[in-house]
Amino acid sequence: MSQGNEDDLTNAGPPGDGANDQDPVIIPLDRLRAAHEEQAARDSEESVQAREERPRGEQAPQEQAQTAEAGAAEEEPVAGELNRLELKAIIEALLFSTAEPLGGRKLAELAGARDARVVRELIEELRQEYDASGRAFTVQEVANGYQLFTRPDLHRWVNKLHMRAEEESISQAALETLAIIAYRQPVTRAVIEDIRGVQSGYILRSLIEKSLVRVTGRSEELGRPLLYGTTDVFLQVFGLASLKALPKLEELEQPGRG
């Protein structure tokens, strides 16, 4: 039996008995290499053709799997952190459970959110979901915080069930005094009475008892009279996010007034 060259692969097979033994099969390695290169070229050509035939923007199955894995890694929260759905549910529960506005930082602290920015984003998502589903309530920014309110178009039915004591007991004179304080604060009692033309001591005390007005300090004028301003309760009662949300004075002028 002749010996092949060193580039040939010998497959002797299992040993046999005498005359039944088969001669070794000689497979030249150079032919194997050529066959492998031809197969690789065909695979590459088919891959290019498949990419050209796919609709623009569509990924191959392997690419789709890699993209999905990358997306899952981005969505997966850091260990110990809640995902957005969990945080949104917690924030919604907190808003349902309070009768007072909750600020963004306070909500972030209570819910375990990363910061107030995330809270603002989730509250906006809640508001959009409520609007899209036609819910009877929404989230409003009021008194430097967030609170759930029934929709304005449903107020008259809600008021039949539960009239707010503050709204029922505020007289016209008290509303006039409250308006002066809201727009002129910090303001002294003398200025209030000069504008109204009547004594306002009793009304001021009444507004303070209702937590709508508070003493903010003392004036530098002679006698250092007390200065008055509105409170967060005032913002809540009138549904204002801040004093900047007060209507402009020109908007309150009577029609036809010059």
Mean pLDDT: 77
Helix content: 40-55%
Overall shape:
elongated
Structural class: alpha+beta
Low-confidence stretches: 1-20, 70-79
CATH homologous superfamily descriptor of the domain at 165-252:
Winged helix-like DNA-binding domain superfamily/Winged helix DNA-binding domain
Measured by DSSP, the beta-strand proportion falls in 5-15%
What does this protein structure show overall?
- There is one protein chain.
- Residues 1-20 and 70-79 have low confidence and may be disordered.
- The strands form 3 sheets. The protein has a 3-stranded antiparallel beta sheet. A two-stranded antiparallel ribbon has the order 1-2.
- Helix 3 packs across helix 4 (104-111), helix 3 crosses helix 5 and helix 8 packs across helix 10 (201-209).
- Among the domains are: 84-152, Orthogonal Bundle (Arc Repressor Mutant, subunit A); 165-252, Arc Repressor Mutant, subunit A, CATH 1.10.10.10.
- With 258 residues, it is α+β, with helices and mostly antiparallel strands.
- The chain is built from 11 helices and 7 strands.
- The longest helix is centred in the first third of the chain and has 25 residues, at 29-53.
- The protein starts with 7 loop residues before the first strand and ends in a 21-residue tail after the last helix.
- A hairpin with a 7-residue loop joins strand 6 and strand 7.
